[in-house]
Amino acid sequence: MLQECVRSILALSLNETERQIIVVDDGSEVSPVNELIGLSPGIIYVRQPGQGLSRARNRGIETAEGNFIQFVDADDFLLTSTYEQCLDIIRYREADMVLFRATSSTSSVPQPEAEGPVTGTEYMTHHNLRASAWTYLFRKTILHDLRFTKDTLHEDEEFTPLLMLRVENLYVTEGKAYHYRIRKDSITHRTDRRWKMRRLSDAEQVIYRLKEKADYLPVKERIAMDRRIAQLTMDHIYNVMTLTKDETHLNHVLQRLSRRRLFPLPDKDYTAKYRYFRKMTNSAFGRKMLMMALRLNKG
């Protein structure tokens, strides 16, 4: 799968001076260095003991010398024809970031137009954000000191909105430029209770850290971040319901969120789904009905 990933990058219309491929090996049992040499002698291979995704990406950031960065997981790959459209936006427009879609399909069709330019703040104010770090190509200089939080799950949910606030010129395409594999061992598919509890705990801490930062942002940026935090809080409450199926646990979570002024959810007209979920979770009866409906739906 790693070879397929690298080949998808080599297939792009970038010459050797325009690309830098950095493979960070986060403690694999068997080093793939020989396979990489066979693909291209210019690949930079960095090996580190298993330290997690955040540290691996941070290592890649520190190693990168190019003007733009694209994260690609080793078992995924870029969809060449659609990704070329993203490269053209970078080439011919003053873009800080190109945001695109991902798909589990192995093919896609380029889209004729891209929305933009808009600021990242403006985009977050009016849209629900897709936070996966491999769904955008961005200018390295906008990072400054921003890095992925170490030793946590859901690191993209924290990193991406903070990065988005730094974007002055954002272009958005509906083109599906990234293929992701659906894996049974991913954090969204693991079923053991300890892992579920860690996933929920880390997600809650991400919300708290974003809330702390939002309180010190200028007004426009705070409004944008507040929407993102409300979206994450809604998702978190939903995940607590579906993963634990425990009303007592849910009530403890809601109490903690309430102490941080995160619950009840803000009375905003973000989306129809948000309005409905907010209404249902505002009362104990509504929450009970919602949990029953979710159990029946899962069943």
Describe this structure in words.
This protein has 299 residues and is of the alpha/beta class. It folds into two domains: 2-179, Spore Coat Polysaccharide Biosynthesis Protein SpsA, Chain A; 193-298. Helices cover 48% and strands 13% of the residues. Helix 5 packs across helix 8 (219-244). 28% of the residues are buried. InterPro entries: Glyco_trans_2-like, Nucleotide-diphossugar_trans. Keywords: Transferase. It comes from Prevotella multiformis DSM 16608. Pfam families: Glycos_transf_2 (PF00535).
Could you tell me the CATH topology label of the largest domain.
Answer: Spore Coat Polysaccharide Biosynthesis Protein SpsA, Chain A
Distance between the ends? 34 Å
Unreliable sequence segments: none
Helix content: 40-55%
Give the SSE string. HEHEHEEHEEHEHEHHHHH
- Mean pLDDT comes to 93
Structural class: alpha/beta
- Over the alpha carbons, how many angstroms does the gyration radius reach? 20 Å
CATH-wise, what's the superfamily of the largest domain? Answer: Spore Coat Polysaccharide Biosynthesis Protein SpsA, Chain A
Major beta-sheet overview: 6 strands, mixed
InterPro entries: Glyco_trans_2-like (IPR001173), Nucleotide-diphossugar_trans (IPR029044)
GO molecular function: hexosyltransferase activity
Keywords: Transferase
Protein name: Glycosyltransferase, group 2 family
